[in-house]
Design brief:
By secondary structure, this protein is α+β, with helices and mostly antiparallel strands. The protein has helices at residues 2-27, 84-94, 233-244, 307-316, 319-322, 327-336; strands at 50-55, 60-66, 69-72, 78-79, 100-102, 120-126, 129-136, 145-149, 155-158, 185-190, 193-197, 220-223, 229-231, 250-253, 267-273, 277-283, 292-296, 302-305, 323-325. Helices cover 22% and strands 28% of the residues. The strands form three sheets. Strands 4-3-2-1-6-7-8-9-5 form a nine-stranded antiparallel sheet, with no helix packed on it. Residues 70-265 form the DUF4340 domain. This is DUF4340 domain-containing protein.
Amino acid sequence: MNMNKTIGFLFLLLLVQIILAGTLLFSSPDLSAVRPDTPLIALKDRKPDRLIIEGAEGDKTVLQKEGDTWILPEHYRFPVEKGKVDSFLAQLQGLQHGHPVATTSATLARFRLTDEAFERRITLARGKETLETIYLGSSPGVRQIHARTAEDTTVYSVPFSAYQAPAKPEDWEDKALLSFPPEDIREIQVAGLTIQRNPSGQTGESAPRPNDPASAPPVWFAEGLAEGESLDQAGVAELVRRMAELRIARVLGTQSKPEYGLDNPALTIRFNRKEAGSVEYRLSKPQPDTNLVLGTSHRSEYFGLHNYVGRPLMEAANRDKLVTRGKKEEKEEADSS
């Protein structure tokens, strides 16, 4: 009798274990339930017109599309670098699930993928509708990052990096906003000179080479030259190039500050551009280990310039770089010495 009870008890225990094992088997998440080539997000035909990128240290950037242009609505409404948002969205849409790393909400904190702790939280929206929210967390290796979407607790490792989703507005600014084709410049007023493009002069910005025909008309001519001075065509070409290729370091704001030093600028340049009218640049005096400050007449913002951009511009605008002395003056100097 006791033997039968023991056998019955063991059978019942085995049955319970089988039921529990089956329950765990069918209730456990299937790590292979999603194909590895499945896109992390599926926007389909829904096109975002607003992006919010939040960083781990509280940084936040809002990108808004107005017409065909992306701007930074909370950062002086400054334009975003052309093509940067489209490239960013293409990268996000190209991310695939790959193989899952974890599947439970309990593991999200370990991978820094919670609402309280993350490296990046990227919200894609259209109007007031949120289309997708992506969390980027810890990095398991070079150009790999743990990621998930708001609707899913499954963690994936995707080929992406947090730096590819900048959370600071200045990293999205159009640094080339002040750039323009050099041939657009028609007149420059600087260093006591009024330099004008010769309508019948050569095209391009390079000065005549020694083997050019002597009769070739110069690109530029100037008013304000002293006796014995002539305009240095190569020097003017260098100044024009520096002006046309100007890139800002960052936007400082829209309010002038005494520390900018623009009440007594180190350099003032006025120039006329084709179909753009007259523009004035004021550049601050160089300070040790600090960026230069640029104020313009056609934009409300004040800009920081890297020293390696601002200093060469100031040097190119120096009168000694724009004029050459005639042979007569050189001879007189030689005789006096």
